[in-house]
Write a structure and sequence with these properties.
76% helix; 0% strand; single chain
């Protein structure tokens, strides 16, 4: 359970670090993220701006909670709750027919879609599994073996890369080849 917890922790922390960094890497990226929340049309412009900054703050809290050992279980809960809220927002936008680009990780022209809902639901599952594994491993008191930690971190890195580049991967495999 310890290594499963570490993998879930690293995966979620990595995804949220990349997401936050992509949105705040410059003034233009931040403005595009805020504009994408406004374009969802779920709130008034002023409330949408507040919601955008609330997402950034929540992502920062999740990252801190996931990297600090004494707040790890809270980090899993916070990450899961944030992902549920984001998934609900994407689902509501889809029901309204909004084709706003996904700014989840910064610049992207891919409109929000069911893929993003599924991606977030998978991450919700990762958060739940991480919480359960963390709760189970919490009282074990066993030290982690470096090889196990390295394997868990490698698996998390691959998972985070797939999550972050999911739009590109889908675009790569969705490209049709014209017959000769």
């Amino acid at each position: 359970m310890l290594y499963l917890m570490i993998a879930c922790q690293a995966l979620l922390a990595g995804v949220f670090v990349i997401a936050l960094a992509g949105k705040v890497r410059g003034r233009a990226a931040l403005d595009e993220f805020v504009a994408s929340i406004v374009a969802l049309g779920m709130f008034s412009r002023a409330r949408s701006v507040v919601a955008a900054y609330a997402v950034l703050g929540a992502e920062a809290v999740v990252i801190l909670a996931l990297v600090l050992p004494y707040t790890l279980l809270f980090g899993f809960v916070a990450a899961t709750a944030l992902l549920i809220v984001l998934t609900a927002g994407i689902s509501a936008a889809l029901r309204r027919g909004r084709l706003t680009p996904c700014r989840c990780f910064g610049a992207s022209v891919t409109p929000l879609g069911r893929t993003h809902v599924v991606r977030n639901l998978v991450l919700v599952a990762v958060g739940c599994i991480g919480f359960a594994a963390g709760a189970a491993a919490g009282g074990a008191g066993s030290a982690a073996h470096p090889a196990g930690v390295a394997l868990a971190l490698a698996a998390a890195a691959v998972g985070a890369l797939i999550v972050v580049r999911l739009d590109d991967l889908i675009g790569l495999f969705a490209t049709s080849v014209s017959p000769r």
